## 1
Amino acid sequence: MIFAYLGDAPAPAFELPCKDVFEGDDRIVFARSETWDCNWLQLVENSLDAAHVSFVHQKGRIGTFIENVSDAVPTLEFEETDAGIRQIATRGVGNVRVSDWTFPNNNHISVPGLQKDDPWIDIGHWNVPLDDVTTARMNIWAVPRSTPEADRRISDYFEARADYNAADHYRELFYENIFPEDTVMSLTSAQDYLAQRGQGVLADRDNEILGRSDAGIALLRRIFAREMQRLRPVSRQRDGASSNMPRSCRFRWWHREADSTAPRVARPLAAPRADGGRRRAAGRATGVTRDHRDPSAHRSGRELGAK
Ligand SMILES: [Fe+2]
């Protein structure tokens, strides 16, 4: 995957977040892309809606994802990081998913492996708007290497499904209730497409009603608004306008309807950032019960060269 700056010269200085899990030799990495016929923000906001997993990923057929994560409604926590949002979804003892969102369009998650004993897979999603109603859903799947036989089996799986694009199956999914036979990658994608495209090509946000489980979406919107305000020319900022947007938007929210008595296994959240600036993200997404706050997982693009 290649990242390019396409604006006017000179290119601004920036540090592109990089993660070992997507680049190490101990991983097999598969790149995929789908083009969906809806607005990119619908895909983006889905990333901050961890609760959707318990519902959306049961649609049509029960796949590997929901079998492992369970359909329990999670307790949710959110914390702003240096460059995004860390969200923690707890569905019981030892069932904690941590995702790492990086502005403006990346989500790092982890999902169960293809088979019961396969290692969990790290996924990086980048949602790129092609126009107001078309979005490229680009992602890489990074699978830990294990045995030669397992590596070959997993490689064969991904190569055989590289061309699946849920938007090509609109009628089957929406009107005929036909879902992919593949219960991992294709099914998961089809279910997400159903939920996101199901809002229309451009969701009607004037008439939406956010609920408690939408706290991540609310936080995402607040930070987008705050940062867009900062980008406005000073001459266009009304007196006092900046103070309407909180410089810090740290936010923690709990949804306790599901198993609120279960002990939490997530570690304490990282200390709030001290510099107030936007730098590369710390932390990494993980699967159930894995250590998920190893800052060394991040390296800057400058450290890696022109990545
Ligand atoms: Fe999903």
## 2
Amino acid sequence: MLIICKKCGSRKAKFREACKNCGYKPKSDHEIAEAVLLSDVWFIYTGLSKTDAKGQVLLLQEQIRNKTYVSSDSEIQKARKYLSDLAKEEWWVLLRVLRFLSPLFLIILIAGIIFCVRNCT
Ligand SMILES: [Zn+2]
């Protein structure tokens, strides 16, 4: 994942992470959405190839360093929707994992009860 800092254009690894160069850390949903817009993940999501997405981010990095970068509110809205969709997606994955594991839990529970009945009385 390639993400760049909104303030100085340095690379970082996570949207919410503080920049190692200037210390800027996105906190509000708005600021995190801005960080999303400055990542290759976003450009891949909008349909670009990995290489083109990287190229776009490097272009934005140039703009940030030249102080010509301006974020657009409509883009930020789109990124916020993307983030909320992503959060929903994570919940679905968790639910699916739990559903997959539930028979296993049931077996452990039953084995535990049998063990307890035999040994605890
Ligand atoms: Zn920075």
